C-alpha cells in the first residue's frame, strides 16, 4: 500500500505504509469526513455538512462533485473516496439507507478500509430504532442517534474526532 506522509513540515514523500503501522492522522487525505446517506435524510445531512465546514472540516458531500466528475464513472470515483480518500466515513444509517444499493456500496468500501485501520474509521449515525444487520454494524459498535443530536452537535463531534475543538 502506498501513502503520502507529512514529516517535519517538509514536502510530502511517498513511502510504504503497512496496515496498523501509522495512524491515519499521519496520512494526507482529500477529505476529513465523507458522508454517506439516503436521499430522505438529505436535509439533516446538508445541515450537518454546513456546520462541519463552519468548523473547518473538509467534507465530501455529493452535491459538490457534479462539475469535478463530469465524464467520469461516478461509481469508481465514489469508491475511491470511501476507500482511500477520506480520514473518516460517517454513514447516516436509516431503513432507506439499508435498502439503497449506492449507500451499501459506499459502506462496503468503507468497511474494507476499516479492517486495515488501527483507529476508528466508520463513525455511524443512526436514524430511529432500526434493526441493524451485524454485517452492516457490529452490535458493540458505538453510534450516535440522529434524533438525539442536532446537526451542529454532530458536527462538533466530528471536529473532536478529527482533532481540535
How does the helix and strand content classify structurally?
alpha/beta
Number of helices: 5
Give the name of the CATH architecture: 3-Layer(aba) Sandwich
Strand order of the largest sheet: 4-3-5-6-7
At the fourth level of CATH, the homologous superfamily is Toll/interleukin-1 receptor homology (TIR) domain
Portion in helices: 25-40%
| Number of structurally distinct domains | 1
- Report the uncertain regions: 1-22
Total strand segments:
7
- Strand and helix order: EEEHEHEHHEEH
What form results from the Cα inertia axes? globular
CATH top level label: Alpha Beta
Radius of gyration: 16 Å
Major beta-sheet overview: 5 strands, parallel
* N→C terminal distance: 31 Å
Please, could you describe this protein's structure?
This protein has helices at 42-54, 74-85, 95-99, 101-114, 151-162, and strands at residues 2-5, 13-16, 31-36, 59-60, 86-93, 125-126, 144-145. The chain has 165 residues and is α/β, with parallel strands linked by helices. The chain has a single domain, classed as Toll/interleukin-1 receptor homology (TIR) domain (Rossmann fold, 3-Layer(aba) Sandwich), CATH 3.40.50. The protein has a 5-stranded parallel beta sheet with strand order 4-3-5-6-7, with helices on both faces. Strand 3, helix 1 (42-54) and strand 4 form a beta-alpha-beta unit. Helix 1 packs across helix 5 and helix 2 (74-85) runs parallel beside helix 4 (101-114). Residues 1-22 have low confidence and may be disordered.
